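User: I'm new to structure prediction. If I give you an amino acid sequence, what do you actually give back? Let's try with this one:
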Amino acid sequence: MSEVTPGGFPLRLENCSIERALGVVGEKWTFLVLREAFAGVRRFADMQLATGAPRQVLSARLTRLVEAGLLRKVPYREPGQRQRDEYRLTQMGLDLYPILVSLMQWGDRYLSDSEGPPVLLTHRDCGAPIEQYFRCAEGHEVAGPRQVTALPGPGLRTAPAPAGTSAEVAP
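Assistant: Good question. You get back a string of structure tokens that encode the predicted 3D arrangement of the chain. For your 171 residues, that looks like this:
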């Protein structure tokens, strides 16, 4: 058995969802490609211009995002040109939007220039600024991590403890 944290969880999960997600999106160019995809940018040259990514890096990131299921390729052909692909968000990719907004708002709060954030997100229908909240299934607002209890899920798998370590921390 792995060592146990004060909260009762093993120190090393074999199947951590955060680690798996970072394996797909945990890289600067990936987030910048997704930022542009959410802004409606679909074509390679436009993404390269908007992100500043080197051609090979952008190509590799787009391939990875397609393979992971976040983007899909849609062929198009300009008159007199060869067929090319546009990159469009899948539902899996669209579901990352709140994460990108949270990351942006964190950057706005702690890393913006003195003039303020470079981009403001507003509700298209009424113009009010976008805000994000955590709510439980009963509708209560959750202010932060101290109001959350993590419980073992049905798919929890722990990694074996390294040789020579204690098997468990006493409660």
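You can read the tokens as a compact description of the fold. Here is one thing that stands out. The CA atoms of residues 33 and 47 lie 7 Å apart.
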